[in-house]
From TrEMBL:
<feature type="transmembrane region" description="Helical">
    <location>
        <begin position="257"/>
        <end position="276"/>
    </location>
</feature>
<dbReference type="InterPro" id="IPR047817">
    <property type="entry name" value="ABC2_TM_bact-type"/>
</dbReference>
<protein>
    <recommendedName>
        <fullName>Transport permease protein</fullName>
    </recommendedName>
</protein>
<keyword id="KW-1003">Cell membrane</keyword>
<dbReference type="Pfam" id="PF01061">
    <property type="entry name" value="ABC2_membrane"/>
</dbReference>
<dbReference type="InterPro" id="IPR013525">
    <property type="entry name" value="ABC2_TM"/>
</dbReference>
<feature type="transmembrane region" description="Helical">
    <location>
        <begin position="76"/>
        <end position="101"/>
    </location>
</feature>
<keyword id="KW-0046">Antibiotic resistance</keyword>
<dbReference type="InterPro" id="IPR000412">
    <property type="entry name" value="ABC_2_transport"/>
</dbReference>
<keyword id="KW-0812">Transmembrane</keyword>
<feature type="transmembrane region" description="Helical">
    <location>
        <begin position="122"/>
        <end position="147"/>
    </location>
</feature>
<feature type="transmembrane region" description="Helical">
    <location>
        <begin position="44"/>
        <end position="64"/>
    </location>
</feature>
<keyword id="KW-0813">Transport</keyword>
<comment type="similarity">
    <text>Belongs to the ABC-2 integral membrane protein family.</text>
</comment>
<keyword id="KW-1133">Transmembrane helix</keyword>
<dbReference type="InterPro" id="IPR051784">
    <property type="entry name" value="Nod_factor_ABC_transporter"/>
</dbReference>
<feature type="transmembrane region" description="Helical">
    <location>
        <begin position="159"/>
        <end position="180"/>
    </location>
</feature>
Amino acid sequence: MTDAVTAPAAAAPPAAPPRLPSALALGWSRAGVETRMFFRERDAVVFTFAFPIVLLAIFGSIFSDRLGGTSITASQLYTAGLIGAGVMAASFQNLGIGIAVDRDDGTLKRLSGTPIPHSAYFVGKILQVLLVAFLEVAILLAIGVAAYDVRLPSDPVRWATFAWVFVLGITASSLLGIAVSGLPRSARSASAVISLPFVVLQFISGVYIPFTQLPQWLVGISSFFPLKWMCQGFRSVFLGDSGAALEITGTYELDRVAMVLAAWVVGGLALCLMTFRWKSRRDG
């Protein structure tokens, strides 16, 4: 009697690799990591979060006279200008320094070698920037309203203006921050390389010194960069029609504000695509 030949069992098909979460979900998770890391770094918090608040308290307490025969006080002018500076600090300065540090310590190199989409890293950074900028604006406005008689607009059109100036300004500043993150040669030099030009830009962009007290050639330089136009847009929201008399042209030029900020969004994106690197210079 012959033994029955049994057919070998069919091999089970290989298990499909686990599906990764979406880039948005990974970016949201990364945003939590980025936010915790940001608030643990005291120097980052001081320069991007507390710095404009401290300056508002100092300048607002020292200068309280009315300006140019208007009902606007110097402290109200500083509040509007420092909102623009705070938004740019939270985006341009925060991203520029943070990405330079990530590149220097190898974080970017490790992330680029994982299956996680590269976009998730930037989504996390952008969400962290939006949170810090929102908190910055809220605290500056709270101080301005409580201590310096800043009046929140009741006109929805002015709030709409605030929204598009905020979105265009933080987008342009974030893209520029990503682009300049490649300039520092190391993490140690990142703060000096990125913070110093930003501080200078604040002094020539109408944040601390009114344009009427600046030489024309400095006004021309500041008009090339987005901070001047961000502050001008925010002044239109929080100072109203009476504050327009303090502008160089006697008007807020909101159409030009939108045009310049939109141009910097396009230009900043082009700079990012041309200059961004995942590896540090010593890695080639």
